[in-house]
């Protein structure tokens, strides 16, 4: 079984978990368009939205330090998508849009199976 096959199974499991738990859901990964650096450049590009399966949870209280991890931060497990989420992206869970503060891919053997995103309002 290849890494891509395992990543597909993880995505299917996240979709199933979304239906079985209250924390799972279809989320939207929002990638900003190309910026306009100079006034004579083309207008900024439109953001692209990619639907992804995600399971959101809270960080445990002993992890809060007020700086790196705050009480309002969410820990979101996101299926592996291409292109991978970055801190320049946003993640929309329901009607709430979150900044992605940190992304940790789970990538044994170099193939991302899923990503853990630290999200903040």
Summarize the structure.
15% of the residues lie in helices and 39% in strands.
Strand order of the largest sheet: 1-2-3-6-5-4
Shape, per Cα inertia axes: globular
Q: Given the helix and strand composition, which structural class is it?
A: mainly beta
Strand content: 35-45%
* Uncertain regions spanning at least 5 consecutive residues: none
Helix percent band: 10-25%
Gyration radius, to the nearest Å? Answer: 16 Å
Question: Total number of helical segments?
Answer: 1
Number of strands: 6
- Integer average pLDDT: 86
Q: State the distance separating the first and last CA atoms.
A: 38 Å
Major sheet summary line: 6 strands, antiparallel, barrel
Order of helices and strands: HEEEEEE
Describe this structure as you would to a colleague:
A hairpin with a 7-residue loop joins strand 5 (96-106) and strand 6 (114-120). 20% of the residues are buried. With 121 residues, the chain is mainly β. The protein has a six-stranded antiparallel β-barrel with strand order 1-2-3-6-5-4. The chain has one helix at 3-20, and strands spanning 24-31, 48-58, 74-79, 90-93, 96-106, 114-120.
């Amino acid at each position: 079984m290849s890494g891509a096959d395992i990543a597909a199974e993880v995505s299917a499991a996240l979709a199933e978990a979304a239906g079985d738990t209250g924390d799972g859901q279809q989320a939207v990964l929002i990638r900003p368009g190309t910026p306009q650096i100079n006034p004579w450049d083309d207008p900024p590009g439109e953001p692209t939205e990619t639907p992804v399966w995600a399971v959101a949870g809270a960080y445990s209280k002993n992890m809060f330090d007020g700086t790196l991890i705050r009480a309002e931060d969410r820990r979101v497990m996101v299926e592996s998508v291409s292109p991978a989420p970055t801190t320049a992206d946003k993640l929309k869970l329901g009607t709430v849009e979150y900044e992605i503060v940190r992304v940790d891919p789970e990538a044994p053997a170099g193939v991302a199976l899923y990503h853990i995103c630290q999200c903040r309002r």
